[in-house]
Amino acid sequence: MGQRLARVVEQFGLQGLGELAREIERDKNHELTAAVVHAASTNHTYFFREMDTLDFYRRHLLDLAKSQGEIRVWSAATSTGDEAYTCAIIAVEALGLEEAQERVKILGTDISAPVIETAELGIYRRPNLEYTPDHLRSRFFRPLADGRVAVSDDIKRLCTFRRMNLKHRPYPFQKKFDIVLCRNVLYYFRIPTQREVLHSVHEVVQPGGILLTDVSFTLRDLRVPWNTVRSGAHRKI
Known about the structure:
Blueprint: H1 2-11, H2 17-26, H3 30-40, H4 51-67, E1 71-75, H5 82-95, H6 97-103, E2 104-110, H7 113-121, E3 123-124, H8 134-140, E4 141-143, E5 149-151, H9 153-156, E6 159-163, E7 177-181, H10 191-203, E8 205-212, E9 226-230, E10 233-236
Parallel strand pairs: 1-2, 1-7, 2-6, 7-8
Antiparallel strand pairs: 3-5, 4-5, 8-10, 9-10
């Protein structure tokens, strides 16, 4: 990571890691912040991560489908898009292709421009699919000549990707979400920032909406308006 940060220092014409730290603390240069996050993050993600949480997502999706038309899902730290596409695959499996494409809208956001570009491309190495069931691999992924795989166009149509920094508020959404996944990101923040992000997510979720976090992440001492219904799943109060 030291070499990656050194490249950031050189790219932005800084005098060293000390000046880099001071600039990040000021939080004024959004491009610099994004470059540091990308350099420091391993962006380790994969399809069908934490299946218990995804099963809860599927059940809530089916409940929503019985009571409303459009269903809006936000993958708030989507990285290379594995999570957003996983949500799309589950939606198609649960509702059928035609209904899912008509009713389910999935937004994936991340602070890093390179990973958003990867998400939009929808091409992955096979280790990303290590936990993907075989029947879903054959249905929703197309093998490429170089050994990688491409997400099917049917799944890509459900997903939109945008660059966004969760620390910059208020969030720029005109419509509220029914389900938000905010996994593999909150523990990178200090506690005050965790609290601010969770409050901001609360503001853009429908009443009774669901927030999904890492199962190991607890909201217990953060004093935020979410009711934990099980590990990794919280309902808007």
